[in-house]
Amino acid sequence: MVIAYLLTLATLTLSVGRLGDMLGKKRIYTTGFGVFTLGSVLSGVAPSIEWLVGFRVLQAVGASMIFALGMAIITQAFPPGERGRALGISGALVSIGIVIGPSLGGLIVDQWSWRWIFIVNLPIGIYGTAAAHRFVPDVPPPGGQRFDFKGAAVFFVGLLTFMLGLSLAQSRGFSSGPVVSLLGIGISALVVFVLIERRVDQPMLDLALFQDRLLTINLLTGWMTFFAISGPFHPGALLS
To answer: pLDDT value at position 230?
Structure first.
């Protein structure tokens, strides 16, 4: 249930971000709130674990629409003089949510039922959808853009197999045949993805961005920050 959500979120974020550039960020962002809310409610009333996993995938599709475009909308909505502050506030709130979320979820499960972890998103989702529809600026995207289907497919396969291999390695070990195969496919596909992005006119990911040293350092710092947060506040760590 957890892996299905995370894999869906991680593998779709890049493609959804590109679609936002092509179709308009507000449309996809607002739709994402609706899909996430629907997936949450359906997860809360799921009759079996199979249905729950499927509804979690739907929920993750909506989450990818929100996650992929949130920072981009802030960058687009605020002038350069206010952009840093707005991004800082958003990042701080996300970090607080990551820290508080596991403990709050544990309290909800302990006091009521696991179903309320999902149903509690209903009022939040309704408010988020309404707020996005009202306040997010509707900036028309530039025309003449093309979607890199080949790059999107290779990236999806590469990240999916690589992350699935890492997940299975926790129980089977890195020497397991399936784990080695998944990691090998994932790394190979991601290398092919980089080669594709270097050759297409309108790539999914502009690799030239990483030549900016400040951007690269910020990305590495953000990765290390979230990695550090996930350790002490992971539910398993709290129970150990």
So the answer is: 58
The letter for the amino acid at 34 is G
Q: Which of 216, 150, 221 is nearest to 189 (CA)?
A: 150
| Tally of structural domains, the chain | 1
Does any domain span residue 81?
Answer: yes
Low-confidence ranges of the chain (pLDDT < 50): 235-240
**Residue 35 near residue 58, CB atoms below 8 Å:** yes
Spatial separation of the C-alpha atoms in residues 125 and 8, rounded to whole Å? 19
Three-class secondary structure of residue 189 per DSSP: helix
What's at 189, amino acid-wise? Answer: A
| DSSP assigned state of 199 | T
64 lies in some domain = yes
- C-alpha to C-alpha distance for 185 and 158, rounded to whole angstroms: 7
**3-state DSSP assignment of residue 20:** helix
